[in-house]
Design a protein that fits this description.
Its EC number is 6.2.1.1. GO terms for molecular function: acetate-CoA ligase activity; AMP binding; ATP binding; metal ion binding. Its cofactor is Mg(2+). This is Acetyl-coenzyme A synthetase. The protein has 648 residues and is an alpha/beta fold. Strands 12-11-8-6-7-14-15-24 form an eight-stranded mixed β-sheet, sandwiched between helices. α6 packs across α10. It is globular. 52% of the residues are buried. It binds adenosine-5'-monophosphate-propyl ester (PRX). The site of adenosine-5'-monophosphate-propyl ester has 22 residues, from α12, β20, β25 and β26.
């Protein structure tokens, strides 16, 4: 087969799973999930073992997902304590700071236990108990890992807010989760610049309950404001706290974390993951998809503010007793060779990043890669969006030197871990395809026009999953009804991913992107409605419609149509003002790439904006606008086409 890449015989010989094993195990996992997961559940340590394995229903109105329900465990103990007998002095986390002149830190499992315990004791001293929520708004520093594991240790539920989010976004998440504590730092250095996290937190807390305590990591040492009685110096408290904290026995279905993500409405959704099933799934996918072996050094370049960081920087690797790299910086600081310098410096064996990073580095030339010794690498990974074949080939040739399998992992905040991915020693790769389902995952392709399951192997449609897997989200925080409607309402009996896909004659899946109002900007998920609500909150904006459009580096860019209030002049200053406005309302990742002034928007007679048309114009593909006869005023379309911003 041309365009198909197989792992070397040497790789296959050592792999956890080869082709024959994949076929056999996959068949077993879907034929008898109960038996399959009963055994796989034993990968982690249970305080009280489970007798029940799977109790799940996708029936609309009665959706309920429970795994290993009567088992008890502690996630922090699984990620730390259980490794102490063999790995106390092994490095758990390699911390690579933003500035390469600052020395990296190697944190052993013994140190991780002590620091996590100290932080857990600080949280306890503030009255944080099992089930309480703690919001974490930190840079990529070891304290972020300690904070997650400290919460897990005492049964508190963490909710990480990416440090690029604005005070408003932070306040909404603190309020929605009713957090008792927020953990932040003075500043977050990234790419040589600093984000004022403490100042952002101060601004956020103006909109929150007065009782919320603020733990501050003095990381850069810069001056910040300090509110006595509310702000607490976390490092100082940790130094005073006891170095050991016993862990709490948790039910398998007790929540581990909430992670807010974008949906198709304006309000972000609080995705809830629980303890037992999530950890089993994160650990198993980390070991098998990345073919992790003892002694490897695993690097996932994501931020812990995203699910990728949760599952593949912290929980999966640490549950497996791995050495995981935590990187504070960006790929292009101080130069475009930083990723490769770090790989060479720490002898990274598995490297996992997003296509957007590869595309941006591709444009800067191969000399940045060639400068560094990448001979330690054995496997490469991709996540967050479809990887285009050019980027795949560049990654394969220049980074992997043609000898590292590439795992293109398709999954979501909601899925906890990989759903569709090549297993490197088992499934030959085709550039751009996420290939085949992971164990226990039953993908189905539905025809969106009639919700029928497509039986032909070669087909196209929307991607749903027919049965539960242990890493699946359980609910939306405080809104189970919205959970059912968003994921199980449209295609009854199935979990709807929100993605379109194609299945080829070999049964390989090719994800074609979101079919809802979610866009994927540089691998970050953004709801168009969120950006719209931010824009219309500006006093000069009357109305707005936001769509995605193809962007060479980011995958998708944000294209905003804006109708101004009567009498307001559309100027380039106002355009800048609106960009800055969205940055402050949501965060820099939501800044529109293109803003088009729209005197009118294409609406049906009932007032519904016809986004299909706006998408086409934004894509510069207005030759086939389809039926516009239902528009209240078809002339607005001509105007929008004439003044379109994307002519590429
Ligand atoms: O559209 C899919 C895309 O990212 C969405 C999930 O985004 P998020 O919840 O932020 O999680 C990202 C990291 C797991 C999906 O609905 N996506 C993710 N991975 C891939 C992908 N699209 C194509 N190929 C992938 N490998």
């Amino acid at each position: 087969m041309s365009g198909v890449y197989e792992a070397s015989a040497e790789f296959v010989a050592r792999a956890h799973v080869d082709a024959a094993a994949y076929e056999k195990m996959y068949a077993a996992s879907v034929a008898d999930p109960e038996a399959f997961w009963r055994e796989e559940g034993q990968r982690i340590d249970w305080i009280k073992s489970y007798t029940k394995v799977k109790d799940t229903s996708f029936e609309f109105g009665k959706v309920s997902i429970k795994w290993f329900e009567d088992g008890t465990l502690n996630v922090s103990a699984n990620c730390i304590d259980r490794h102490m007998s063999r790995r106390a002095n092994q490095t758990a986390i390699i911390w690579e700071p933003d500035d390469p002149k600052t020395p990296a830190r190697h944190i052993t499992y013994a140190e991780l236990l002590e620091e996590t315990s100290r932080m857990a004791n600080v949280l306890k001293s503030l009255g944080v108990e099992k089930g309480d929520r703690v919001v974490i708004y930190l840079p990529m520093i070891p304290e972020a890992a300690y904070a997650m594991l400290a919460c897990a240790r005492i049964g508190a539920i963490h909710s990480i807010v990416f440090a690029g989010f604005s005070p408003d976004a932070l306040a909404n998440r603190i309020n929605d989760s009713k957090a008792k504590v927020v953990i932040t730092a003075d500043h977050a250095p990234r790419g040589g610049k600093k984000t004022p996290l403490k100042a952002n937190t101060d601004a956020a807390l103006l909109h929150c309950d007065d009782h919320v305590k603020c733990l501050v990591v003095k990381h850069t040492g810069d001056q910040t404001t300090w509110i006595e009685g509310r702000d607490i110096d976390l490092k100082q408290q940790m130094a005073w706290a006891k170095p050991y904290c016993p862990y709490t026995e948790m039910g398998a279905e007790d929540p581990l974390f909430i992670l807010y993500t974008s949906g198709s409405t304006g309000k972000p959704k609080g995705v809830v993951h629980t303890s037992g099933g999530y950890l089993v799934y994160a650990a198993m996918t980390h070991q098998i998809t990345f073919d992790y072996h003892d002694g490897d050094v695993f690097w996932c370049t994501a931020d812990v503010g995203w699910v990728t960081g949760h599952s593949y920087i912290i929980y999966g690797p640490l549950a497996n007793g791995a050495t995981t790299v935590m990187f504070e910086g960006v790929p292009t600081f101080p130069d475009a060779g930083r990723f490769w310098e770090v790989c060479a410096k720490h002898k990274v064996t598995q490297f996992y990043t997003a296509p957007t990073a590869i595309r941006s580095l591709m444009g800067l030339g191969t000399e940045w890669v060639e400068k560094h010794d990448l001979s330690s690498l054995r496997l490469l990974g991709s996540v967050g969006e479809p990887i285009n074949p050019e980027a795949w080939n560049w990654y394969n040739t220049h980074v992997g030197k043609g000898r590292c399998p590439i795992v293109d992992t398709f999954w979501q905040t909601e899925t906890g871990g990989h759903l569709i991915t090549p297993l490197p020693g088992a499934i030959p790769q085709k550039p751009g395809s996420a290939t085949k389902p992971f164990f226990g995952v039953k993908p189905v392709v539905l025809d969106p026009s009639n919700a029928q399951v497509q039986v032909a192997v070669e087909t196209e449609g929307v991607l749903c999953i027919a049965d539960s897997w242990p890493g699946q989200m359980r609910t939306l925080w405080g809104d189970h009804q919205r959970f059912e409607e968003a994921y199980f309402g449209q295609y009854r009996g199935y979990y709807f991913t929100g993605d379109g896909c194609r299945r080829d004659a070999d049964g390989y899946y090719w994800i074609t992107g979101r079919v809802d109002d979610v866009i994927n900007v540089s691998g970050h998920r953004m709801g168009t409605a969120e950006v719209e609500s931010a824009l219309v909150a500006h006093p000069k904006v009357a109305e707005s419609a936001v769509v995605g459009y193809p962007h060479d580096i980011k995958g998708q860019g944000i294209y905003a149509y804006v109708t101004l209030m009567k009498g307001v002049e559309p100027t380039s200053e106002l355009r800048k003002e609106l960009e800055a406005w969205v940055r402050t309302e949501i965060g820099p990742i939501a800044k529109p790439d293109l803003i088009q002034w729209a005197p009118g928007l294409p609406k049906t007679r009932s007032g519904k904006i016809m986004r299909r048309i706006l998408r086409k114009i934004a894509e510069n593909d207005f030759g086939s606008l389809g039926d516009t006869s239902t528009l209240a005023d078809p002339s607005v379309v001509e105007e929008l086409i004439a003044n379109r911003m994307n002519r590429g």
